[in-house]
Amino acid sequence: MSDEKPPTGKVILITGAGGGIGRGIAVEAAKAGAQVVVNDLGATLDGQRESSAAAQTVVAEIEGSGGQAVANGDDVSDPEGAQAMVRQAVDTFGRLDAVVNNAGILRDGFFHKMSYENFDAVVKVHLYGAFNVSRAAADVMRQQNSGSLIHMTSTSGLIGNLAQANYSAAKLGIAALSKSIALDLRRWNIRSNCIAPFAWSRMTSSIKVDGPEQQERVDRMKEMSPDKIAPLALYLASDDSAETTGQIFAVRNNEIFLMSQPRPSRSVHRGEGWTMASVRDQAIPALKSSYLPLDVSADVFSWDPV
Fold first, then answer.
1. Where in this chain does the record put each Ketoreductase domain (predicted)?
2. Minimal CA–CA distance to 137: which of 185, 77, 96?
3. Which CATH number fits domain 11-258: 3.90.1150.10, 1.20.1510.10, 3.60.21.10, 3.40.50.720?
C-alpha cells in the first residue's frame, strides 16, 4: 500500500479474518492506522468449528507491528454472535466505522446431488451471516450517522459456476442485500458495496482439478495474492468513498472492475397483447439474439490476469 492512510482512526470489523483475504485486509487496515476486530470462528473449510487460534494469531501479528486489534470467535450465522462481535468492537474501541463481511464456507456439489443440509449451511454463513452482522452494525452506525458495509460476493453468483448452487445463490443474494442496504440506510450516511475477489485462498484451494485446462486455471489463480483485495476494501471503508454506494466491484490481481447490474436489455411490444403462439412466433425470435449464454466465470474472465 502507499503512504496514504485513509482508514486512520477507523474501527473496522472483519469477519473470517483468520486467513486469506480477511487476514490481508485486517493486516493492511492496522498498518493504515485502523483499530481492527479480527473475527474468525476457527472452522474447517466446510464450516466445522475447530479453534479460534487463527484470529488470535492475526491479532498477535498486528500487535507485533505496533497496531491495535482484538480477536473475536463468534459465529456470523448466529444473530446473537453477530451482535456480540459488534458489541465487542464498540466496547473495546468506542465505535464501529466499517464492516467487511468476508466469512464463508464451501460445500460444493452438483445440484442433483446437493443435500438440504449443505445448501442451508452455506447460505446461513454467507447470506445470513452478511445480514446478521450488517443488521447489528446498522444500529451503531445509525447513531453515529456514518458507516460503511463491505460484502464479499463472487462471480460464481454474478455470472455462474458449476457445482456451486448453494454458494452461487448466497453470493448473488449478497449483491441484492447490499443494494437494499444502500437504499435503506443512505439517509444516515451509511454506504454498502460489494467486492467479488479473485484470489488464492483456503476456499479456492478446494477447486477440483480434473484435467490440464483446470490445472492451468488453478495455477494462474495461485499467482493472485489475497492481499490484492485490501486496497479497494480499505478505500471503501474510508471517508474518501463517501459518494460510492450500491456498487459491485471485482478485483483480479492488479485489475479492478465495476460490475454491471441487471437492467432490461431488449423488449418487444404487441398492442393486442400476447398469446402463447405469438410469444413463440414473434417475441422469442426477436429476443433470442440477446440471450445470455450459459457462461461460467472463467468464460467471461477468459484472459490472463495482469
1. 10-206
2. 96
3. 3.40.50.720
Closest to 134 measured CA to CA, from 154, 151, 120: 151
Sheet containing 248-252: which strands, arranged edge to edge?
Answer: 68-72, 35-39, 11-14, 98-101, 147-152, 190-198, 248-252, 255-258
Which helix (H) or strand (E) segment holds residue 194: the answer is strand 190-198
- How confident is the prediction for the chain on average, in pLDDT? 92
Helix axes 20-31, 230-237, angle to 10 degrees: 60
Say what angle helices 165-185 and 116-123 make with each other, to 10 degrees.
Answer: 30
Give CA–CA dist 85/74, Å, rounded.
7
Q: Which residue has the higher pLDDT, 267 or 220?
A: 267
Question: Does the pLDDT at position 292 exceed 50?
Answer: yes
- Inter-axis angle of helices 79-93 and 129-144, to 10 degrees? 40
Active site residues: 167
- pLDDT digit string (tens) for 218-236? 666 667 889 999 999 999 9
Three-class DSSP category at 15 = coil
Residues 217, 208: Cα–Cα separation, whole Å: 11
- Backbone torsions φ then ψ of 257, nearest 5 degrees: -115, 145
